[in-house]
Amino acid sequence: MKLHFDVEGGEFITAGIASSKVKKTLKQLGISPNIIRKVSISMYEAEINMVIHANGGIIDVEITPENIDIQLVDDGPGIENLDLAMQVGYSTASKEAREMGFGAGMGLPNMKRHSDDMTITTEVGKGTKVHLAFKIHE
């Protein structure tokens, strides 16, 4: 099964819709609650990052009997220092995002902690690609 979502940058009102739809789909497919929790947390964090830091982007989800693969691609500013961005508490979120409760610097660390595999490819001025992989059977 394949799912595709477009994410709008700066649209906090619609942020999280894609991850909610994937969560609902996984429940309907009978995926274990623990896997659903991991996927939901990781995907929500990634989706919010697209809204906060990029000009939006696209999310492609592929669900097979063995795996859930999520590809997130944006054309935002890219990540200047990926090692720094992976540190808990580090954030470049705007004042506006922080006032809404976002930008605590937990996004990338949460994505890494909850996924079975995470790959980030980024180039300053060009954007970021994130691949998240989850094994369905624990």
From TrEMBL:
Keywords: ATP-binding, Nucleotide-binding. Residues 49-135 form the Histidine kinase/HSP90-like ATPase domain. The keyword Nucleotide-binding applies. One of its GO terms (molecular function) is ATP binding. It comes from the Bacteria. InterPro entries: HATPase_C_sf, HATPase_dom. This is ATP-binding protein. It comes from Vallitalea pronyensis.
